[in-house]
Structure formats: structure tokens, C-alpha cells
């Protein structure tokens, strides 16, 4: 009589709880990681060391003052809202869809003022947009 029988059971390792623990750790690390801190960035605008641009056929220059006032091709815009700026841009474009819009904003102008110009240009249909910048002063070093 064979009471023991043939016992060929090998020990089994269950990986499902191990995978569950790893996924929980991965989710925790993803939620607790900060990828960038924008408050530590030091930005000095506007200056660029690019080559001068050749003449463009049709240009509309929008100047943005530090206090949020606008001027389209040297003519002051009445009001500081997007609708007034869009109507001034429409007059300056004169139905030309291929006109270039050059935004010449003061370095201390509010970001919202520049966004208003971009929004007005979108409403009018001007999609060729560039920003004016000055060359850095001679002898100065740029900070990273």
C-alpha cells in the first residue's frame, strides 16, 4: 500500500499581488512628481540675435505699450478691448489675407495685452504673425 502517493507539486509563485503593488507604487510616484517649476525660470524679453528680415509685401504693425494701449500702423486704437482692436486690424488689412502682422510689444507689457492682439488677428483672419524684438546690447551676456 502506498499511502504517500506521488507528490510532484512544485511551489508556485503568484505574481498578481506583486504586480498590483508595483502599479500602486508607480501611480503614487507619477502623482507626487513635479516635472517643472515655472517660478524658477528667469526670462528676459524681448531681445533676439536673429538675422534681419527682408522686406515683406504687406505689413501691419501693432504696437503694444506697457500700460496696455494699442496702435495699429501708428494710429492709436480707441479702447483696449479685442473688438476695437479687431476693427482697426480689419481696416489696416484692407481685405488682404496675405498681410503680415508684426507685434511690437513693450518688454514690460502685460501678457494679456499680447494675447488680445493674437485673438483680434484670429478674428480678422490674419494668420501670418511675427514678433518684433531688438538685438541685445553690445557687450552684454545673455543669461540661460
What is the strand and helix layout of this fold?
Elements: H1 16-32, E1 59-64, E2 70-72, E3 75-76, H2 82-93, E4 100-105, H3 111-124, E5 128-131
Parallel strand pairs: 1-4, 4-5
Antiparallel strand pairs: 1-2, 2-3
Helix pairs in contact: 2-3
Main location: membrane
InterPro entries: ExbD (IPR003400)
Membrane topology: Single-pass membrane protein; Single-pass type II membrane protein
Structural notes for this entry:
The chain has a 5-stranded mixed sheet, covered by helices on one side. The protein has helices at 16-32, 82-93, 111-124; strands spanning 59-64, 70-72, 75-76, 100-105, 128-131. It is rod-shaped. 30% of the residues lie in helices and 15% in strands. It is built from 3 helices and 5 strands, in the order H-E-E-E-H-E-H-E. It is of the alpha/beta class. The protein has a domain at 59-131: 2-Layer Sandwich (Nucleotidyltransferase, domain 5).
Using the coordinates above, name the CATH class of the domain at 59-131.
Alpha Beta
Radius of gyration equals 30 Å
Distance between the termini: 86 Å
Order of helices and strands: HEEEHEHE
Beta-strand segment tally: 5
Family: Belongs to the ExbD/TolR family.
Pfam family, one: ExbD
Keywords: Cell membrane, Membrane, Protein transport, Transmembrane, Transmembrane helix, Transport
Subcellular location: Cell membrane
